[in-house]
Amino acid sequence: MSSRLSDYDYVLPEELIAQRPLPRREDSRMMVLHRQTQRIEHRLFAELRMFLRDGDLLVLNNARVIAARRFSDDGAIEFLFLEKLAPGRWRCLVKPGRKMRLGTICWVNGAAAQVTEVLPDGSRIIGFATDVPLESGGIVPLPPYMRRLADEEDLERYQTVFADVPGAVAVPTAGLHFTAEMLAVLPHTFVTLHVGAGTFQPVKTEIIADHQMHAERYSVSPAAAEEINTALRLVAVGTTTVRVLESAQRGAGKIVPQDGSTDVFIYPPQKIEHPDLLLTNFHLPRSTLLMLVSAFAGREFLLAAYEEAIRERYRFYSYGDCMLIL
Fold it and tell me: pTM score > 0.90 for this model?
């Protein structure tokens, strides 16, 4: 049993962390993992169609990243807007927290912002004198491992070409490789899961079953549910899509149209009911995402593939290369 956090560790040379996207989305490399034969191939993402069959359906997450990072007018407080609770009322992460105790007021875009509640997880409920338009004035919140602020290039590239439903604070990275031209010839449908800040939170418990998974909002439309239930094979694009598929069918035997919130935590030896194939990027060591993919591919096979990816100098994480697990 791979029940300990240390079972999901690996050492990654820092220079393999992709800091910028490739000039063209579709030029990423694609490692192909054959689960039945334990074979690994080295391909290009542009060759994805070679591994698909008639009756396959790609399921993609169409969440749109919001410009959720911004600062107080004096630059002393950093906000990460996580969830809009009502007009002018948001759940936020703030730094430094010691300066934002209950009742504290600061100024954002000339309007007062007051801490009305401090939640057990350290986030704050902030009341703003005027509503906060996150489509402008904020900064796209890049992952911590990029160690830089987002710039003009990230406004376009840290977003999938099919991003449609605003609300995520991180991009569903497996979708970054697709172009509109590719999707035009591939059968596909969309679900929505708003990736939260918890996706970057490390697992701190040595026994992974003790970890409390963050909750994320998701949605499956009636049309998407019908397409998914009638497909011959499902190709999940990203771990967020897997979380939606698993959450939307548990106990029902099929995908049910719904809007909800999921804190499902998938790790070996759990079995994943959906999908049949998984396209995913490379994930951080000791992360819940690595554990989810291990449940799909097998931990030993997956970590062996990561070792080979490091030897072959694949690019890792959000702007990096991908793997297709058959």
Answer: yes
